[in-house]
Amino acid sequence: MPENSVSADLQTGSDKMVEWTDFERDTIKDIFSRIEYDVVGPAALARCLVVYPWTQRYFGGFGNLYNAAAIKGNPMVSKHGTTIMHSLDRAVKNLDDIENTYTELSVLHSEKLHVDPDNFKLLADCLTIVVAAQLGKEFTGEVQAAFQKFLAVVVSSLGRQYH
Amino acid sequence: MTTLTAKDKQTVKAFWAKVSGKSEDIGADAVARMLVVYPQTKIYFSHWPDQSPNSPAARKHGITVMMGVGDAVTKMDDLKEGLKELSQLHAFTLRVDPGNFKILSHNILVVMAVMFPTDFTPEVHVSLDKFLAAVSLALSEKYR
């Protein structure tokens, strides 16, 4: 049972499509059209590495992660944060088939990167916090629900190919 | 996992000093979000005639919760002892599943990000997250 994260758990079997309301689709697309990928991505990844320091285990080759300032200023962290946002962008553009969109990424994270899938939820929570800070009052409860549902589907899809 | 360092305590106290003036709004928003984003939490409030997130009952509950959090800030050095009665209340009367403490904590953090985007840095986030986890643990103390 994941101890540290509260992103909603979503089980998407391959015979069950995720259903999105019009509000959810519009909200998710709207959020991603408004946030700057090279600001939000780096901030979310840096926050994850600070708030959940054990996630640093996957970034041994990134150099100086000794303290929050070093993490925030680390160019490899920034670059990877931006990469993550562009991957999420693919999910936004394929809301009805996120699972298949992420098959290769799931295999990569499982077989090559050996990332504990519980950690996806930690990053998702940090991304929620960063987007909340960016959007302020416009990040209403309903918007938060749609965004967290999207991230839950992403997280579930990334974990699908783990065996 | 939830031992608060001196730095954590200092960080939480300093941040709380900045935000406590808005604690009622923080609490109300956190509870409202919890009811919307995690609708299963509504089961604990089936006795409210109006279960909508912005109802007077929901707001009042948010205020109550944040008063508890503020009280916990003053009892940071011994939360188990300081929150003994609240734990008894949650264990024997309210019987809130402890998984929900994490849910509400998450929504408190989201509200902090919304209301205090510059002050809610990653350093503040980690200390506050640890503090809320410690509070949750103290609240679960009497459960079994």
TrEMBL record, chain A:
Which GO MF terms does the UniProt record name?
Answer: haptoglobin binding; heme binding; metal ion binding; organic acid binding; oxygen binding; oxygen carrier activity; peroxidase activity
GO BP of this protein: hydrogen peroxide catabolic process
Superkingdom:
Eukaryota
SUPFAM superfamilies found in the cross-reference section: Globin-like
UniProt domain Globin: residue ranges = 19-163
Question: Its GO CC terms?
Answer: blood microparticle; haptoglobin-hemoglobin complex; hemoglobin complex
Q: Which InterPro entries match?
A: Globin (IPR000971), Globin-like_sf (IPR009050), Globin/Proto (IPR012292), Hemoglobin_b (IPR002337), Hemoglobin_oxygen_transport (IPR050056)
**KW rRNA-binding (keyword) present:** no
UniProt entry tagged with the keyword Transmembrane:
no
Keyword annotations: Heme, Iron, Metal-binding, Oxygen transport, Transport
- PANTHER family from the UniProt entry: HEMOGLOBIN FAMILY MEMBER (PTHR11442), HEMOGLOBIN SUBUNIT EPSILON (PTHR11442:SF7)
Family under the similarity heading: Belongs to the globin family.
Q: What is this protein called?
A: Hemoglobin subunit beta-2-like
TrEMBL record, chain B:
Q: Which UniProt keywords apply?
A: Acetylation, Heme, Iron, Metal-binding, Oxygen transport, Transport
**Which InterPro entries does the record cross-reference, listed alphabetically?**
Globin, Globin-like_sf, Globin/Proto, Hemoglobin_a-typ, Hemoglobin_oxygen_transport
What are the recorded GO MF terms, alphabetically? Answer: haptoglobin binding; heme binding; metal ion binding; organic acid binding; oxygen binding; oxygen carrier activity; peroxidase activity
Instruction: Output a single Gene Ontology CC term carried by this record.
Output: haptoglobin-hemoglobin complex
Q: Does the keyword Chloroplast apply?
A: no
Domain Globin, residue spans: 3-144
The record, for Pfam families, names: Globin
Name the protein family: Belongs to the globin family.
Sum up the protein's function in the record's words.
Involved in oxygen transport from gills to the various peripheral tissues.
Q: Which PANTHER family match?
A: EMBRYONIC ALPHA GLOBIN E1-RELATED, HEMOGLOBIN FAMILY MEMBER
From the Swiss-Prot or TrEMBL record, give the protein name: Hemoglobin subunit alpha-2
Q: Which organism is it from?
A: Gymnodraco acuticeps (Antarctic dragonfish)
